[in-house]
Amino acid sequence: MTASKPSAGLPLAGLRVADFCWIGAGSYTTKILGDLGADVIKIESSTRLDSLRLAGPYKGGKPGVNRSGYFADRNTSKRGITIDMKHPAALDVVRKLIAQSDIVANNFAAGVMEKFGLGPDACLQIRPDIIYLAMSMQGSLGPQRDFRGTGSSIAALTGIQELSGLPGRVPAGTGTNYPDHLPNPCHAAFAVLAALRHRRRTGQGQFIDFAQTEPMLALMGPTFLDLTVNHRLQQRRGNDHPWAAPHGVYPCAGKDRWIAITVMDDAQWSALVDVMGRPAWALEARWQTMPERYRARAELDRCLAAWTADHEAQALMASLQARGIPAGAVQDAHDVVRVDPQLAHRQHWVRMPHAEMGESIYNNLPFRLSRTPVRPTRPAPLLGEHTREVLHDLLGLSDAEIDGLQAQGVLK
Is domain 247-338 annotated with CATH 3.30.1540.10? Predict the structure, then answer.
């Protein structure tokens, strides 16, 4: 396949993705592929908008389907077309696109694509070497295959929500659709790359039946092991570590400023005592070993918090890190975007002009390849921005044919 020019020379240049994904996990998966150079063509419809287009924050606080920062962040490096999938003439156009694609991706509930006549069997008939990624919540088979949900539903089903929060309090959860942002997109991208590797060796395409609940279980290994081996059900513990102390978030000078500190062994504790100036309370025998510190961790946290409260978070982090003590200033969005020197050095923030929002920052990929510079190739598409371009240049439709489809309402 010949990918669009911005991706030339990138690792996945030459691959094309027919992207039916929406909202979080699926869109982030195809974003990863696009940022790596694949020509990702996002299929949308004005008759059923991607929910993220309707979610803030909006540029300048002004709502609009092309003004969502949330949507923009999840959909870099993509071209966008609009097709009303419920129109009788839509299927022929979509089949032509699939025939020109290497990967078909969706994160609808199980069975939705089959209703459009675009299930894995149908797509593999169109193109036998295609990689078909379906990211339903719990997979395509089983008694709960038809269940629907969001990232918070997945966190609840997999036990993450149950363990998130303070002891004796209601489950707090992760505060966001965490499964959508990291575990599911990364595992799905791994699966696609593995399937592409298999295709390169054998010429065979295949169906990836991806259950969004299951990557979350990989984060819960110690919890499940504790249950199966020790018959012990872990409980919410807030910031408590299973065995290390001190381990927590402590107040610093200034309004709502904090620092996270972790001491994993006695040598780190000794270094922390030195940084604190060897106060009398820290030299008491009851703090000298990890088991002793852990038993009295609540009191230890109070003593440590009284000391950190007089220090500026960034300066304290530097002092602790200089002595090999794991510590991190609790940064807000302003700190991360405008202050963090490491992110600036690594050029994490990519600036690109958006047709409606103007210049905005976007997340770069979290790795650097020594021989292949990777970064987002274009901002998120406007709704239907590339419809005519894709139908004409890629699918070979004439202007008259495209105009006819437009008049019929196919390209809404």
Answer: yes
